[in-house]
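Exercise 7. Predict the joint structure of the components listed below.
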Amino acid sequence: MKSIPLNLSCPRCFSKNLYKFGKDKEGNQKFQCKSCKRQWAPDAKPFKSKYPSCPKCGKTSFLHHDYKLYSNFRCNDRKNCNHSFFVVKLVEVPPTSSKDLKLESFTMKRMRHPFHIVLTALVQYFIGNSTFRKVAETLYLTNQVKVSHVTISKWCKRFAPALFNVTNRYKDQINVSDSDEWHFDETYIKIKGKWYYLWLAIDSETRMILDFHLSPYRDATSAFSLIHSCQSQYGTPQTMFVSDRYPAYRQAFEKLLPEKIHLRVEDFADNISNNVIEAFNGQFKAWYKTKRGFQSFESANTLIALYIFFYNFIRPHQSLSKFTPAQVAGAKYSEKTRLSLLLIS
Ligand SMILES: [Zn+2]
Ligand SMILES: [Zn+2]
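Solution:
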């Protein structure tokens, strides 16, 4: 017979004066404390319901109905609460394509060109709507730097993980959950001659792009991916707007944000929020036009994420008193930091 483990002590009074006390239902050895009479099984797993607790009262819930993309749970306290709620099924709803981006810390190692040349190139490409060829040409004219358009494209890929990484520094500072409206929309882009949907979520108050999702489909699953991702990062605003007739969003809104108002923008012809997304779409399309499509899903995903990075964090907006959307949303960085693309603070 095994003796009582030496390092075992009573969880209540920390006494080491213990008895063995039979086994629990799962066959785990139980002990009893001689001093305070507490009984417990050290190896027993703590009880945890596989269902989420009720968001209203915190009590346990039961599965009421299972759907393809979400489950409907109901509160077990049927007398006092009886709350019914929906939870997205992460097995069925993939993360947004923005979650595929790699993150790395910034380094200039093995770079043949100085940092300010790289900065200039990236700003020209993402804010100046230049093509890689035009950027290469301008660098030669202004700085006597001779690089090919392929090199500029490689700089984008090389610095993307560091640029995405720095935005994480500001994640905690950004607050868009007390915003009045988030606006959902999508636009089209071409990858290797095939059309893709770029799903977008924008906060109308700060004009910040909250997240994006690049997908070949215009389906309910993509809407769930985008809305769930925004919610898990930023909470929920007062109102949701959809600028599209497509019912894909409706299901996701109704299930994931049942207490929030969701409106179709067509019902509000001269809505401010509509102008916000139109303004972004106009700028994005002007940039996209110079690209004439993307070469691969991965490069489209990275370049669009970079475009959004420049839009959110670097480009000051006239309508925001020359601040960036991220600054208006609460991110604190100096002008010097902004001009170094947040890489050097
Ligand atoms: Zn005890
Ligand atoms: Zn409840």
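Discussion. The pocket of zinc ion (ligand 2) is lined by residues 54, 56-57, 59, 75, 77, 81, 83 (CB under 6 Å).
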